[in-house]
Design goal:
4-stranded antiparallel beta sheet; about 10% strand; 6-stranded mixed beta sheet; alpha/beta; elongated
Length: about 575
C-alpha cells in the first residue's frame, strides 16, 4: 500500500506541471455539469406545463424547448473541448515520463543493463507507459466530471427536498466502500499482470533476435512451449485481475439501483402527500427532476469505481516505469573532471582489482604499463577477463580498487565523453542502425565529407561491395544491417572507426566474422591505422596478433605471461600451449 501511495505521489508530481490545463479541465467539467443539471429542471417545468392544470401550456413549452436544445448543444461542445484538454494533459505527461525513462537508460550503469533483459525494459517504456496513459485519460475524463456531478446533484437535491436527499446520501457510501475494498485487492493483481507481460515481451524479443539459432537447433517446439507457459500465466493473472476489478461495477450498480428505487418510492409518496414529505410542495415535474438527479448522482459512482479499477492497473504499470526512472545512474563525472585532449596514448593499470559479483573475483592485482603507440594484444581462454579489461579501459565499469590512468591522469578524474571519444572501438558484435550506408559510416563524424567516407571505406576494404549495392553509399539498410552478411557489417564498423582516426584503438575480436582472405587485407589496413596509436587487441585467433609489440597472456584474471610472439613461444609456457592448440 505504501508503494502504491508513493507511485501516486510521483504521478501527481509529473501532472503538476500542467496545472493551468488541469484548472481549465476542472472549470469545463463544472460548466458542463451545471448545464447538464440545469436541463432536468427545464424538463421538469415542461412536464408540469403538460400535467399541471389539465391544460397543456403550448406557449410555455415553445419557450422551454429551444432553451433545452441550446443548452444541450453548448454542453456537448464544452465536453468536446474538455476531452481535447484531457488528451493533451495525458499524452504530455506520458511523453515526459517516457523521455525521463529513455534518458535514464542512457546514464544507467552497464551492470543494470547486463542484469535486466532488454525486452523487459522495452515493456516498461512502451506497454506500461501506454497502460499508464489509459488510466490517466480515464481519470481526467471521468473522475473530474464525476466528482463535480456528485457535488452538483447533491446540492440541487438538498435544495429541492432535503429529506429525500438524505436517503440518497445515507445509502450511496455503500458503493464507495465496495469499490475501495475491491480496488485494494486488485492492485497486486495488476502489478503481477504487468510483470508477466514484461517477461513475455522480453522472451519474444529474445526469440526474434535469435531465430536463426532456434531454427538451427530445431528448438521451435521448445520455445513455443515456453511461450505458451508464459502466455498461460499472463492469461491467468489477467483474467484474475479483470474478474475482481469487474466486480466493482455490478456491486455499485446494485447499490445505486436501490438508491433510485428509494427515491422513486419516497418521491411518489411526497407527490401524493403521504409519508415524511407530506405537506411539502412536490409535483410530478419535481419528482422527474429528482429521479433524473438521483440517476446522475449515482452514475458517477459507477464510473468512478471503473476509474479506480483502471487506476490500479495504471499505477501498477506506472510503478514499474518509475522504478526504472528511480534507478541509481552510473557514478557521474566529478565536478572538476578534466577533458582529455592531445592524447599521447600512455595507459597504465596499477594494482587493479575488479569483480562483477562480490563472491567471485575476476581481475586480481593487475599491473600494466603501456607506452604511446604500442600495440598490446590480450589473449587467454574464455572467461579469463580479456573483455573485462576493455570494459575497465572504457570506464563502462569502475575498478573496485587500484587505478587506470591515461597520460598520467586517473580516468576517474576525466570526463567519460572525452575518454571514450579518445578510443576507436570495433567489437565482435556489430551494430548498425536503420539508415543509409553513408550515415552508418559517418556515425562517429556526422560532418565528414563524402570523399572522407569513401576513403575510410576503401581503407577498410568495404568500398567494392558497397558500390555493388543498388544505390551504393545511399543504399538504405534495415535495423542491424538488414540483408548484409556478418562480414560486410563488420567491414562497415571498421570503416566507421577508420573515419574517426582516434588516438587509441580497441579491437575486440574485430575480424572474427571475416573470411581469411579479407582478414589479411584488413590486418594490413589495421597496421596502417594503428601506426603511432596505442592499440589494444583482443583475439581468439592467435595468428592475428603476431605483429603486436606486447602480448599479455591472461588466466583467471591475472597476467601469467607477457612478451612478444617469438619470446612467448620460446618460453614453452601457457601461450605456446594456446597457440599450438589453435593452429
Amino acid at each position: 500500500m505504501k508503494k502504491q501511495k508513493s507511485t501516486l505521489v510521483i504521478a501527481l508530481n509529473h501532472i503538476k506541471k500542467y496545472r493551468p490545463l488541469i484548472a481549465l479541465s476542472i472549470l469545463l467539467a463544472a460548466v458542463t455539469v451545471a448545464g447538464t443539471l440545469y436541463i432536468p429542471i427545464l424538463a421538469g417545468d415542461a412536464i408540469d406545463l403538460i400535467v399541471g392544470a389539465g391544460n397543456v401550456d403550448f406557449d410555455g413549452l415553445m419557450r422551454l424547448l429551444p432553451e433545452i436544445g441550446i443548452i444541450a448543444a453548448a454542453v456537448a461542445l464544452l465536453q468536446w473541448i474538455m476531452n481535447t484538454v484531457n488528451n493533451r494533459i495525458t499524452y504530455h505527461v506520458v511523453r515526459d515520463v517516457r523521455r525521463e525513462a529513455f534518458e535514464k537508460i542512457q546514464v544507467l550503469p552497464l551492470s543494470y543493463l547486463d542484469s535486466h533483459p532488454s525486452g523487459e525494459i522495452v515493456s516498461r517504456v512502451i506497454a506500461d507507459a501506454d497502460q499508464f496513459a489509459d488510466g490517466l485519460l480515464m481519470g481526467f475524463s471521468q473522475l473530474f466530471t464525476g466528482v463535480v456531478t456528485i457535488l452538483g446533484t447533491l446540492g440541487f437535491m438538498l435544495y429541492l427536498n432535503w429529506k429525500i436527499a438524505l436517503a440518497v446520501v445515507i445509502l450511496t457510501p455503500l458503493s464507495v466502500l465496495a469499490a475501495r475494498f475491491i480496488a485494494r485487492k486488485t492492485y497486486n493483481m495488476f502489478k503481477l499482470q504487468s510483470e508477466t507481460r514484461g517477461e513475455q515481451t522480453s522472451f519474444i524479443n529474445e526469440i526474434i533476435d535469435n531465430q536463426k539459432v532456434v531454427k538451427a537447433f530445431s528448438r521451435e517446439e521448445n520455445v513455443t512451449e515456453k511461450f505458451d507457459e508464459i502466455n498461460g500465466r499472463l492469461q491467468k493473472c489477467s483474467l484474475r485481475a479483470t474478474f475482481f476489478s469487474s466486480i466493482t461495477n455490478p456491486s455499485t450498480r446494485f447499490v445505486n439501483s436501490v438508491v433510485y428505487a428509494c427515491v422513486a418510492l419516497t418521491g411518489a409518496l411526497a407527490v401524493l402527500g403521504i409519508g415524511f414529505s407530506a405537506g411539502s410542495v412536490f409535483t410530478v415535474g419535481s419528482l422527474s427532476v429528482f429521479l433524473s438527479y438521483a440517476n446522475q448522482y449515482t452514475k458517477p459512482f459507477n464510473e468512478i469505481s471503473g476509474v479506480i479499477a483502471e487506476l490500479q492497473n495504471a499505477l501498477a504499470c506506472a510503478g514499474r516505469l518509475f522504478e526504472l526512472i528511480d534507478e541509481e545512474p552510473e557514478i557521474p563525472d566529478k565536478k572538476d573532471a578534466s577533458e582529455l585532449e592531445g592524447v599521447h596514448g600512455c595507459v597504465n593499470l596499477k594494482d587493479v582489482e575488479f569483480s562483477y559479483s562480490e563472491d567471485k573475483k575476476l581481475i586480481d592485482h593487475l599491473n600494466l604499463d603501456v607506452k604511446p603507440g604500442q600495440r598490446i594484444a590480450i589473449v587467454g581462454p574464455t572467461g579469463c577477463g580479456k573483455t573485462t579489461i576493455i570494459n575497465l579501459l572504457m570506464r563502462f565499469y569502475d575498478v573496485n580498487s587500484g587505478s587506470i590512468g591515461v597520460d598520467g591522469e586517473d580516468i576517474r578524474n576525466i570526463t567519460r565523453h572525452s575518454l571514450r571519444s579518445s578510443y576507436g572501438m570495433v567489437l565482435q558484435d556489430t551494430w548498425l542502425r536503420a539508415g543509409t550506408i553513408r550515415e552508418n559510416i559517418a556515425m562517429g563524424r556526422p560532418d565528414a565529407s563524402d570523399s572522407e567516407i569513401e576513403e575510410a571505406a576503401r581503407a577498410a576494404h568495404a568500398h567494392s561491395f558497397i558500390k555493388r549495392l543498388p544505390k551504393g553509399y545511399d543504399t538504405v539498410i534495415g535495423e542491424d544491417g538488414g540483408s548484409l552478411s556478418q562480414g560486410q557489417k563488420q567491414l562497415l564498423c571498421i570503416a566507421r572507426v577508420m573515419l574517426t582516426k582516434p588516438p587509441m584503438l580497441i579491437l575486440d575480436e574485430a575480424t572474427s566474422s571475416i573470411d581469411t582472405r579479407t582478414e589479411i587485407r584488413i590486418q594490413k589496413a589495421f597496421l596502417s591505422l594503428m601506426e603511432g596509436r596505442t592499440s589494444f587487441i583482443v583475439a581468439h585467433r592467435l595468428s592475428t596478433i603476431r605483429e603486436s609489440d606486447l602480448i599479455l597472456v591472461m588466466r583467471d584474471g591475472k597476467i601469467v605471461e607477457q612478451g612478444s610472439h617469438e619470446q612467448l613461444l620460446e618460453k614453452g609456457g601457457f601461450y605456446r600451449e594456446l597457440y599450438e592448440s589453435r593452429l
